[in-house]
Amino acid sequence: MSKQMEKIVMMDSDEAAHIQTVTGWVDRHGRFWGDDEYQARWCGATHMKCKNKPDVHPVHSTRGYCEECHREASQAKFLAMERVVWSGEPLTIFDSDKYFFDAESLADYCVENSLLPSELQLVICEPNYPPEFDIEQHCEEIIPEGGDYFSLPQTVRDAADALNKAIKESEPVSWSGSERSAIVSDDILTDEQGGACSMSQVDKQALREAAQNATDGPWEDDGARNVLIVRDGVATSLLTTVVGYDTSGLEDIRNAIFIAAANPSAILALLDELEAKDRRNAELNSTLERWAVDRAQSASDLEAAEKRIAGLEDENEYISKRFKEADLIVGRNLIAMRAAIIEWRATGDANNGMAWIFNTLLGPGELPSENEKDAQAYFDREDEQLDKEMMELHKWFWERNKRIEAERAAGASKGE
Question: From what superkingdom does this record's organism come (predicted)?
């Protein structure tokens, strides 16, 4: 068979290469992207519209995200959280790295930022503990095939148990925000702190008294830059001439419009509305606090019921295991009786047969096969599975006792 010759294509031949026009997308930096228009536009642009609400939200950097979408999503997440009454746990401001570990630090923050606790999005923190050490998983590559936790030396198992006991009894390493928002009363602030934290530090009572003592009006602007006090439909008083900073006079007119709108009647109406909302908010907070307390009690009752159910299930399993243990013991006795029959048949010696039965009072039940001639071999063969199941039972009892001891120790450390 002749070997096929490789085709030869010369460097200067038309077959080696030819000119061809290629069409595709090129970004503003000159990079060619072929048919990938999106990638070309993404690399060439600096900003893009919000993909969720392009007509509402402002544009954002192509290498960033829509801050309005993030804010709305964060707000929705916070509002969906379970609300619970704060009972002294560490707190954090939602979606931030600001933490408070006592009421004093929270009060100081409120005073510094002129905010009330109820105006903050506070989240209850949960403790972070070191993870427990799984010695069996740690040693899985060296444990013999078919082995388990008990294949490890007792000293190693004891050391691992001591380490995990220390971990369970340790203090938290750190704290993280949970899925529960905190209901914190403004009463944690002193009267002085509360006054400093009122909205924009406005003295609402002083503002109300000033509005009540002022001329009722109505007040109107004259379309120029004057604010007039009107009585009986007639402008009888020139309140002020507003002078702004611009030379066109437009700022003066806008200032006059604002001053006329912020007349005593309007201020009193706003204060009345604000106080009504404050009362309503206080009622809602009181209701939420009551619901939170009721929910906490219900959760406590549910937890107690679940523990009781778990305890009953554990007791039921324990009793079932004990019944199985009894069945295995009876089964071993039956095997011994059958072995006694085999011994008697094979040797004719009843005393040797009785030696297999020991002191049992149970009857032999089903007779062994006539083909069985070796009592010891029969007993070993039949007893092997029973012995395996018995060992599994003993292991289960041992693990249960260790778990109960650990739970009691944990409860004692917590003062339960």
Answer: Bacteria
The residue among 368, 319, 325 whose CA lies nearest residue 344 is: 368
- Dihedral-angle region of residue 217 (phi above 0 means left; psi in -120 to 50 means alpha; beta otherwise): left
Give the dihedral sign, CA 9/14/15/21.
positive
| Residue 154 and residue 55 in contact, taking contact as beta carbons nearer than 8 Å | no
Pairing of strands 122-128, 99-100: unpaired
Bigger pLDDT: 319 vs 81: 81
Residues 6+ away with beta carbon under 8 Å from 364: 334, 337, 338, 340, 341
pLDDT digits (tens, 9 = 90+) for 161-207: 999 999 888 899 999 999 999 988 888 877 666 655 554 445 677 77
Among 406, 393, 416, smallest CA distance to 166 is for 406
320, amino acid identity:
S
What pLDDT, on a 0 to 100 scale, did the predictor assign at position 365?
Answer: 46
Pairing of the two strands 82-85 and 174-183: parallel
At residue 359, the pLDDT reads 39
Residue that wins the pLDDT comparison between 250 and 341: 341
Grade residue 124 by pLDDT with cuts at 50, 70 and 90.
Answer: very high
Please answer whether residues 152 and 135 qualify as being in contact, where contact means their C-beta atoms are separated by less than 8 angstroms.
yes
Specify whether the CB–CB gap between 130 and 171 falls below 8 A.
no
d(C-alpha 255, C-alpha 30), whole Å: 53
Q: How crowded is residue 353: how many other Cβ atoms within 10 Å of its Cβ?
A: 20
Residue at token pair 């001639």: 373
Phi, psi of 70 (to 5 degrees): -65, -40
Check: CB of residue 305 under 8 Å from CB of residue 332.
Answer: no
Q: What is the pLDDT of residues 307-335, one digit of tens each?
A: 888 877 877 787 777 777 777 777 777 77
Reduced 3-state DSSP string for 340-383:
HHHHHHHHCCHHHHHHHHCCCCCCCCCCCCCCCCCHHHHHHHHH
How high is the pLDDT of residue 45? 92
What is residue 201's predicted lDDT score, i.e. its pLDDT? 45
* 130: CB partners within 8 A, 6+ apart: 167, 170, 173
> Regarding predicted confidence, which is higher, 232 or 121?
121
Whole-angstrom distance, CA of residue 239 vs CA of residue 2: 115
CA distance 50 to 62: 10
Q: CA–CA separation, 290 vs 84, rounded Å?
A: 10
